[in-house]
What we know:
The protein is of the alpha+beta class. Helix content is 32%, strand content 19%. The chain has three domains: 6-93, Ribosomal Protein S8, Chain: A, domain 1, CATH 3.30.1370; 102-237, PUA domain-like (Roll); 281-401, no CATH class.
Amino acid sequence: xxxxxxxxxxxxxxxxxxxTFIKPRLVKAAVAQLRASEVHSAMGFKDRVPxxxxxxxxxxxxxxxxxxxLERHGQPVSAGTTWTFAYAEDEAAAGRQPALSEAHRxxxxxxxVHAGEVVSWSTLHDFEPPLGSAxxxxxxxxxxxxxxxxxxxxGGPYPDELPETPQAGSSFRYHExxxxxxxxxKHFTNLGLANAMRDRVPVGVIRQVKPKPNPQYEVIGLxxxxxxxxxxxxxxxxxxxxxxxxxxxxxxxxxxxxxxxxPISNDDARRRVARSIIAxxxxxxxxxxxxxxxxxxxCISGCDVSAVLEAAHIRPYLGDHTNVVSNGLLMRADLHTLxxxxxxxxxxxxxRVVLDEALQGSEYKRFHGVALARPIAQRDAPSVxxxxxxxxxxxxxxxxxx
Length: 402
């Protein structure tokens, strides 16, 4: 029998390790500890510790099985090398944010800001990396853990199911990529979208509205992947008030139901738009409390136009117990979006705004260093614990990126 190639040996080690050790242990506990010597002995190897360490620390292992290495102990390459594994989705559920680069966060902000616009293909390539790829339906830049966008081409090779007039908060199915002679479950772009699902990182959604030679695309906005089965990913279109990027915010149910008729009059259309705005603002009771606490004024900009004010969670939404005034800030909608994307933060020491470098040359520059407005009653002020939690989470993210 011919010896395994290095690639086949690595695949065999990863599959055996996951099925024999990690998966059973993660059924019983949130984390699984594993020593290289356990795998070496169970597989009957001789002098293969370096191959085991290399196989298990490869990014492919984490991508294929949805894992994260939380800790690593012992000598770099030895029988005593010990790892602590956890499922990536368990980290997200615990409120830990995935490390996103500045380019990634800027791209997500672009998709949300330009939702509803029709742009040229060249516009999508003004970024580095680009926001889409001509040959790929799912675009995952080289070296990135997450996909950055999905592209829908009506009448194209894949039967995607985006509605003709998609509504924020609604769901749709998006077909996985199936290149020839490749297992879709191991394909690079599909895994990128699966990683986005596990980490609760949204992706941009675009749809071609004009074909070549000068193609144009409608920017649908941001979609959060939440399922993958029977060859389709399920995505839900996000609304401006949604908290994402590692938070455990439940995405709102669709604003309308499949049984609801299309608007047949201006009054019907206005009512539907009003329902969408109400859902986007977040839970009505939470927003009402913050509106009262801050005198219906944005705590950063001073804007008092109630129609654009939203309730922002400082700690991720984890149920009704997190819908308390001390865990919220009343913000103008665009500032709320930047806050959720980590481009605008609050220093817990002096409660002043700290802008990401990516925004220093933008129109938002004037908000850098602005002190948060105090609520009417001191008891409604954001808690130090919550502000420190949010600041620490963002600091950890930046450290991981650098």
